[in-house]
Design a protein that fits this description.
Distance between the termini: 31 Å
Number of helices: 9
Largest sheet: none
CATH topology: Hypothetical protein af1432
Structural class: mainly alpha
Order of helices and strands: HHHHHHHHH
CATH architecture: Orthogonal Bundle
Oligomer: single chain
Shape: globular
Number of domains: 1
């Protein structure tokens, strides 16, 4: 499956524009980390783009990710991508542990991309000029983007062998590179 086919599939199953933007931000972060960690940029990008494509139809566990995996297998998507998508959901970790770089990266960037997006929405410059310090400050406010699991952000950095601020900086950089597609450029 190429990126165009993945976008078509994402849009077929996802009506929420914010969920589409989340998929695009996770794709950008995954492509960025693939470059850093010697991963296949296209495969890692697909994992990011499609990780939640089934969420609107099957939001409950364990259907979320598992129903999507069936669809992806029917369409011939690489098992490395499917395994990464399955691994990002806690209920699949016994069979799909966070034991491969692509899986670690997807787990690490998922919540953080959502949090960085939330921070961007409340900043005058959006992603421009954002840094780890401003993100960390917002992380301390439990009421800000309350649904984001801060412990997943910390654990994700640990999985990647990075300090939290460095991980945040890398994700910001990736998202800045996709700012126009994410709707953060006037």
């Amino acid at each position: 499956m190429n990126r165009d086919d993945a976008i078509t599939l994402l849009r077929e199953y996802t009506q929420s524009e914010s969920l589409v933007k989340h998929a695009l931000s996770v794709e950008a972060a995954m492509r960025h980390y693939a470059g850093m960690l010697d991963g296949d940029v296209e495969l890692w990008g697909l994992a990011g783009l499609l990780h939640d494509f089934d969420y609107e139809r099957w939001p409950e566990e364990p259907e979320h990710t598992r129903e999507g995996a069936k669809i992806l297998r029917e369409r011939g998507v690489d098992e490395e991508v499917i395994g990464a998508i399955l691994s990002h959901a806690e209920w699949n970790r016994e069979e799909y542990p966070l034991d491969r770089p692509i899986r670690k990266a997807l787990f690490a960037v998922d919540e953080l991309c959502g949090f960085v997006t939330a921070v961007a929405y409340v900043r005058p410059g959006k992603l421009e000029g954002m840094n780890a310090k401003s993100v960390r400050k917002k992380m301390k406010s439990k009421n800000f983007a309350a649904a984001v699991k801060r412990e997943d952000i910390t654990q994700g950095a640990e999985l990647l062998g990075m300090e939290v601020n460095e991980h945040i900086t890398q994700v910001i950089t990736a998202m800045q590179g996709a700012a126009a597609e994410l709707g953060f450029v006037d």
